[in-house]
């Protein structure tokens, strides 16, 4: 099976953090069909009032968060001592594991601020793993070109290029794909993985010639072996794949475990200041 589409949809505008206006492409309502992915947010604006308040200190446990910045700067800090700025083209891949408290604060930018945050679930065997942080600069991300299609390889492997984010628990792949006008190319994906594409520039044709405009998300059929988009006028999308976990999800706020009892324990530890192991 190649390039077959389950469905397409657009996100929902919402407010998160301390008042950040963003578009949620999927979240808890779609998590069962997106396994191992939990959430994808498209954040950014031309208006600093819609993003300057940022995401002040908050806890994570049981998941990984992936922040990819296209424009502007996001300052961050966490409870295990990491501090820095995620600039345009940079990626932060944070494994919360047993627990991290962190903040992400978009900075004023003269143009448009734009980025994405993806949440990746962890299986029960890794929910309480040691936290780890991996920051990758734009210059460290390989970019390949074939038949005019340009692919930034953030995680995974394609056309012999390997992304700098390695040793991922759910064997995720994360590509930023730019397609020139009228070109069609087959991009191989793992048929055992959940596969989705998020169109954020242009209007592309996927699967059964289904047109997906900018701001649309495409979920592909299980056993998909390749994705072959066409953009009449050119465009750009994220292509993300990951091995499904197939376990119960207990989710509250920014903590995702397998049972309600584990959630209760996590929030009890957070209240009692014993959350960080």
Keywords:
seven-stranded antiparallel beta sheet, 27 strands, globular
Tell me the Rg in angstroms: 18 Å
With strands numbered from the N-terminus, the spatial order across the biggest sheet is: 1-22-19-25-17-14-13
Percent range of helical residues = under 10%
DSSP strand (E) fraction?
over 45%
How far the N terminus sits from the C terminus, by CA atoms, comes to 45 Å
| Strand/helix succession | EEEHEEEEEEEEEEEEEEEEEEEEEEEEH
- Mean pLDDT over the full residue set: 90
Helical stretch tally: 2
How many β strands by DSSP? 27
Structural class: mainly beta
Shape: globular
Which stretches are poorly predicted, pLDDT < 50 over at least 5 residues?
A: none
Largest sheet descriptor: 7 strands, antiparallel
Describe the structure.
- The chain is mainly beta.
- Helix content is 6%, strand content 51%.
- It is built from 2 helices and 27 strands.
- It has helices spanning 31-34, 260-271, and strands spanning 5-10, 12-16, 20-26, 37-45, 55-60, 63-71, 74-78, 83-86, 91-95, 100-106, 113-121, 132-136, 143-146, 149-155, 157-158, 161-162, 173-179, 187-188, 194-201, 203-206, 210-213, 216-220, 226-227, 230-231, 235-242, 250-252, 255-257.
- The strands form 7 sheets. It has a 7-stranded antiparallel beta sheet with strand order 1-22-19-25-17-14-13, with no helix packed on it.
- The radius of gyration is 18 Å and the shape is globular.
